[in-house]
Amino acid sequence: ATAIVLFNRDLRVHDHPALVAACERAERVVPLFVLDPAVPAGNRQGFLLECLAELRAALRARDGDLVVRQGDVVHETMKLAAEVDATTIYAGADVSSLARRREEHLARERIEYLRFPGVTVVPPDALRPSGGGDHYRVFTPYWRAWTRHPRRPVLPPPRTVPTPPGLTAGRLPPLQPPGPVPGGEPAARERADRWLRHGLDGYADGHDDLAGDRTSRLSPYLRFGCLSPLELARRAERSEPFVRQLCWRDFHHQVTYAFPRICRENYRHPERRWRQDPDALQAWQAGMTGLPIVDAGMRQLLAEGWMHNRARLITAAYLVKHLGLDWREGVRHFFEHLLDGDVADNSGNWQWVAGTGNDTRPNRTFNPLRQAKRYDPAGHYVRRYVPELAGVPAPYVHEPWRLPSPPAGYPARLDGAADQG
Ligand code: FAD
């Protein structure tokens, strides 16, 4: 029999349960990726194409190939199934509403549709709170259950992928000029190896140091599944603080699985009234609010397609709590620019910050100036991303309005009130 392995956000050959099962059970295996123009790739398009090129190379090295089609995923998958006479589709289960709709449509077609784990460490529907409910709403009890949950084994890549002869693989769109982060599984594994050897042990103390940049920066690779989160969690188990972050990722995925409207609707609390202020929104997006720590974060996002977690918290809280603008505006902008931009993690974290999500203290306040002095005490992070302030010493670098003459080219504070801090 012939099987299609439908790749989605699992662009790897290591620890790929759907691929391994197909190679074990089917005589012929047709790996497929569908570039769907309806799915906005934002800044991620170039990274995605690099991931696909590497996946194709890895499959070819195993006597296989990667068929690449463009169009609607369900339509293209069924078209290929007819062409190669496939009887089964093997695919990784995903959580977003779009992915779930796709799964439902494929499951209704006249072909066997099999879902496999792999996008998270623990599958999003595996844990149920003992007190009832279909998912965990609070992180700490989820973490406790998550750490106790038995893990499936990490799978080696299949030795061969028996692709049928004469298969037309289709062209990949041309690669774009290299972006700030190289895409694909080999780059992901190399970065992970380096991180586990040299970075992991400093994580507990260093992860909030903005200028030190001491987090793994593995998020784009986890986003596209160039790395298996299960394998990473296993290899990183000596650092509980790091594994806890991987659990946060799973947490937001299981929330999204239960509440797929998370990117649009408040998860809890009645609708708040948000201000409309297009100029303020634009200043925030461009990193021109006049609050250096916020501007540094927003400019890091534009320059690198990535932002330090502490800066994400500060810039997000500034938008929703300081400027009073709708968290959905933040979701949209981050989603467009982040290489790791992901429905579950992006929306879940935005709602957490906005107080409409899973934070047990929804009225928490974030003082951006205090955060700046604590997590960027010498101002190196600000100076790195805001060149107008490159020559300003600490502590003025965080409060340039206190200088006798403001630095040339740097905007005045958008919120006007220098004493609010
Ligand atoms: P590390 O600190 O090295 O952590 C390792 C991995 O754990 C990360 O790669 C990520 O997969 C996971 N992780 C860490 N923190 C979180 C978290 N709070 N929630 C979920 N997973 C986490 N992360 C995304 O992957 N995609 C997003 O779209 C995204 N949007 C965010 C929006 C806001 C407003 C905030 C506050 C956070 C967002 N995060 C998002 C979470 C977090 O900021 C990033 O995962 C992290 O900064 C990535 O850098 P790293 O790989 O060096 O992380």
Automatic annotation (TrEMBL):
Site keyed Electron transfer via tryptophanyl radical: positions: 274, 327, 350
SUPFAM superfamilies, A to Z: Cryptochrome/photolyase FAD-binding domain, Cryptochrome/photolyase, N-terminal domain
Keywords: Chromophore, FAD, Flavoprotein, Lyase
Stretch list, region Disordered: 154-188
Residues noted as binding FAD in the record, renumbered to the chain: 203, 215-219, 242, 340-342
One Gene Ontology term from the biological process aspect of the record: nucleobase-containing compound metabolic process
EC number(s) stated in the UniProt entry for this protein: 4.1.99.3
Class of enzymatic activity (EC top level): lyase
Residue ranges of domain Photolyase/cryptochrome alpha/beta in the record: 1-121
Cofactor (UniProt): FAD
Stretches with biased composition (Pro residues): 154-165, 174-183
Cofactor binding, note field: Binds 1 FAD per subunit.
Pfam family, one: FAD_binding_7
InterPro entries named among the record's database cross-references: Crypto/Photolyase_FAD-like_sf, Crypto/Photolyase_N_sf, Cryptochr/Photolyase_FAD-bd, Cryptochrome/DNA_photolyase_1, DNA_photolyase_1_CS_C, DNA_photolyase_N, Rossmann-like_a/b/a_fold
GO molecular function list: deoxyribodipyrimidine photo-lyase activity; DNA binding; FAD binding
PANTHER family: CRYPTOCHROME, CRYPTOCHROME CIRCADIAN CLOCK 5 ISOFORM X1
The family this protein is said to belong to: Belongs to the DNA photolyase family.
Protein name, entry field: Deoxyribodipyrimidine photo-lyase
Organism of this sequence: Nonomuraea jabiensis
